[in-house]
Amino acid sequence: MTHSIKLAAVVALIGPAVWLAPSRVEGADPEAVLQNIVQQALASSPAIEAGRAAVEGAERRAAAADRLPDPELGIGYSPVAIETRGGPQRARLTLTQGIPFFGKRGLWREEAEADARAWAARSRGTAAEVRRAVQERFWEIYRIDRAIEIAEEEKLLLEDVLQAAEAKYATGGGSQANLFQTQLLQTRISNRLLLLQGERAAAVEHLAGLVGGRVDPPALDEMHRPLVRIDSAEVMASVLAGNPDLRASEEKVTRSRFALDAMRREYYPDFALSLGWQEIGESDLPGEWNGRDAWSVGAMVTLPLGRGGIEERVEARRHALVEAEAQREDRERRLAARAGDLLRRIAAAGESMALYRDGLVPQARSTFESAMAAYATGGLEFADLVLAERSLLEVRLGYHETVAGYRNLVAGLEGLLGVVTPECRFPPEE
Predict the structure, then answer these.
(1) Residue 135's closest CA among 337, 402, 417, 404?
(2) Tens of pLDDT along 230-250?
(3) What is the separation of C-alpha 336 from the centre of its chain, rounded to a whole number of angstroms?
(4) Helices 104-170 & 30-44 angle (0-180, nearest 10)
(5) Of 66, 69, 49, 46, which Cα lies nearest the Cα of 57?
(6) Smallest Cα–Cα separation from 239: which of 101, 1, 419, 405?
(7) What's the CATH architecture for 2-68+102-267+307-417?
(8) Which residue, among 329, 117, 322, 331, has the nearest Cα to 243 in the 3D structure?
């Protein structure tokens, strides 16, 4: 009876608060740190810079697509005067301006503008992918931070359990095997902490590669509102309407249609207008041949006699249009399947989080508290106490792993939507 009273006193001194506290680390707000890192990545990513340059080039090409071809200037001179009905000729100039058949220039411009819009959509998709990749690595760091926190708590818990075991052993109520088992667990936890620190350093290095510079995220606090509100039907409609890759595919279809229409116009002749000047006569000749000049205007049309070549090019562009339409449909189907899968997994992860938060964690905490009280009074074996302690920490770790996985899934859904700005697309649940 005396040793039970002493052990109860030890338990009272170390208290259940250490074992039952949900989180003892006060770190930085994860959302605020994430926004800052995403902004760095968006500002420094070479892939995004390449996308911007591609868009600028495509827009420049579109601006020049419907311009008239350069005029042609012809110059002629004969060292010996050529006698004509108008008199001797020496010099002549001809200026010719080609004019494509009606509607060709507009189709060229429409084709180039569709190409520019496709490049803009791809650029937005690249930025959204950079943002998604940063978030994926960030939430991995968040998971590791929670694992480190819980391992450190477990180390403290085992120190307290060791004190309780030593107190019980000193009064003849325990065994040396219990002490050895506790010390072995402490060694394993120390090793686990070293491994986790190495994992975090590797994840930070990976994140620095995505950001394009040194990044040192502080220890992250626990997320208190990880769940977000998602309307599945609205999200699916938004994905199919605004996904950057799908938008680029749609613009490729549009560009192919304009390209086909423009090629069909090759069956019609182009025009050319010319203005000519001729030097007639010489200044020392008398009368009407004394150096007067002659001017002329003319018009020409091309003769599209090579219809076989045109037909082949038209057919090639028709096949390109069929290919673009099939690719767009395939991408839409794959996108719908991917979005549906993400929505289902997000819903399942949300239910899992609620199960951890409202059921498993409180139950494991209550079980451990009861086990500690029972062990203090001699009603529970040491192995059962350690099992209850580890179960509590494993359940807490499982909850935070689910939180990190959930946020990664949400980031993937934002990527399908083409979200670029750092703010979360979905509001947190109350």
Answers:
(1) 404
(2) 999 999 999 999 899 999 999
(3) 17
(4) 140
(5) 49
(6) 419
(7) Up-down Bundle (1.20)
(8) 331
